[in-house]
Design goal:
mainly alpha, Four Helix Bundle (Hemerythrin (Met), subunit A), two-stranded antiparallel ribbon, about 55% helix, 3 helices, elongated, about 120 residues
Length: about 120
């Protein structure tokens, strides 16, 4: 394989740190593995009127949506890091061929080559 594994491992570890930081701003780990996150309220006070309650619910719902996206991205990054450890990183999960370097540069956690998007 013609790719610099250490380069991509560094990219993936940096992305993992960023995702965990972003998740930590809107949620908390709900299991020790850090795979599942729950939304947390951004406010320290109990809402006092209907508008505050509605705003609090909207913030919670928005956080839940953002957490789902970030959790998915984190799962993909963790999967790619596991593949590095197993020696299978950069191999298309459909064809078994090498994933193009430019695709990995654009998305280091890519599972497939361009022809199997």
């Amino acid at each position: 394989m013609n790719i610099d594994i250490q380069h991509f491992k560094t990219l993936l570890e940096n992305e993992k740190n960023t995702l965990e930081k972003d998740l930590g701003q809107i949620g908390r780990k709900s299991d020790p593995s850090g795979v599942v996150w729950d939304s947390i309220s951004q406010e320290n006070e109990e809402p006092t009127d209907r508008d505050d309650v509605a705003s609090s619910i909207e913030t919670f719902d928005n956080n839940e949506s953002a957490i789902l996206v970030l959790e998915t991205q984190l799962h993909e990054v963790n999967h790619a890091l596991e593949k590095i450890e197993k020696g299978t990183y950069g191999i298309c999960e459909v064809s078994g061929e090498e994933i193009e370097v430019e695709r990995l540069e654009a998305n280091p956690s890519a599972r497939t080559c361009k022809s199997h998007l």
